[in-house]
Batch of 2 targets.
Target 1
Amino acid sequence: MKIRLLFRSKIVATIALVITLLSFLYLLISASNRPSYTHKLLVRPLYSINRNDVIIGCKIYVFFITPNQGSIFMGSDSTDRTGTVSLIFKLKDFLKRYIEYFKKKNHITNIRVYVLAIYNNRIGFTSYNLLKINNAGEISLVNEKSLKIVLRKTPFKFITKSSEIPIKQSYHSEWTKICLSFVKSISKKAKVSIYISKNSVLENEILSMFLGWNTYTVGYIENDIFLKNDLNLTREDKILSLEVKAKITWEEWKYPVGFYEHRIFISEIDPSTFDFSSNEITNEMFNENWRQTKITNSYLIESNNTIGVMVPKTFIDKIVSKTFSPIPIPENQLGINISIKKGVGVKILLPDDINERYMIRVKTLYFKS
């Protein structure tokens, strides 16, 4: 009897062990299939891309540039004895809000991670996409990123021991119409067409000015377009402007290391608002910059081409009224370049007496204080 009970006990124990192991295996499989909401970033600043420097005490700042909130400061740290910084971001709630924001839209704007490095009289920056977006509009997180940032010399000396965080001390964002091409003829009508495929990608640059020292393109914001059908628009007129609504964002950041940064970018482009206007553009700065690009009767803007967009003067006036730090460059205009990465084409057919057309690249200027 005792032998039978002992035998039964061993069977029960074995079954319990098998159930425990199967449960553990199930949990492991479930965990492996569950999406990760953690992003790990490793940064190494260098004096030159060909050198293997160990720079201790270099300050690293990380921002997420988002469509709905502009730039968000995510964290900072200083390089350790290995010359690197490791930062981990838990983004579950952050990504849920982001996905909800684009739930009913026909486009998705990627989140750009902007990394700034500051050390003594040197500064460096880089950026990358936080998300992977496929042709079906499905989003996945880039879980790990390793970066090298080359530090360039500046005329300034920075304080890098401060533990304070940067502050967004001024901000302005608004939806406005931007012009992608402008045609003006005297007698005959010109013809402009735009084609947008169901899956298209546009990119626009992020411009930053540090201390009024220089204006840099610190990254590009990816706008993925998802339409039910391909879009074709065509119009003929003596005056034609191809326009689209875009959300332009300007920010002024104050850093504890001793400088200011002005940052401007297009947060979103609404592809459902592509349209033509027959209104004359009277903006003086626009007319000065939008000159003929070629002596030809037709021009095709397609993948890997860049379109320069002048920021509306009314927007710049609002920036000037809000800025805290001085803007030393005596200009009153600013432009942002939009790159066609995939699926968009603009065709311009012109009569012989054409006056103006689209601008290939805009001159990166700033505005009067």
Target 2
Amino acid sequence: GSPNPFLDVRVRRAANHAINRQAIIDNLLLGQGHYPLFTFSGVLGYPTPEQRAEVEYNYDPELGRQLMAEAGYADGFDVPLYWTTDFGGAFMPDIVPAVAQDLAAIGIRTHDEAALVGDYFSDAYVIGGPNRPVGLYWMWANIVRDIGSMWDCCVGPESFFTKLGGDGVMDPALHELYIAQRTELDPERRNEMIAELMLEHARQAWLVFIAEAPSTVLTQADVNWPKGGRTGFMWGGTAFAIQRRKAT
């Protein structure tokens, strides 16, 4: 995993076991939300609950610490955590430190690096190529029915958000499966391929999965809550996750 600890799958899985998703959902999302994959649950081909159960990481900080030690990071390590103060939902200032606290419990010590969205999606951070800062980057999911919206922009090996090019950084079979499903004419087979892509991406823990929150509008008489209801405006991105960057 050196110089990037997250290239070691044990570290990636440890980070996922560190997150107390139910506490986040209960305390910050008013009990409304569920375990996410790399895009929102309305995409075509989204895995079944039974399939997802096989790849979801339960909250187990003790196992997280064990995996960290096995990967050679018994003493943990420090890493910046980049996020936006004006994008992604009204609860961002609350959910980010909650996740940071969970990660710290297994030795992943994050340093808060807040940025305005105009800077976040610029050369200074997300799309800065080889000169961008290395660290953990908060990301969100588009509400678009086709999986390509997230894979091409934010998750795949050459997306503008990740740019994880290089041998050993991401399993090339994942991108090959994504390319193959784009030209599959049998709808049932294509859905199966999409499900397997999402499941294998989760097995390899390429994101630190947080939660998928609801995005709804309630209107009744003189009551008109914005998207997200009492949780505040949630933009339209419902799956919250952290994307790792390649160290240089």
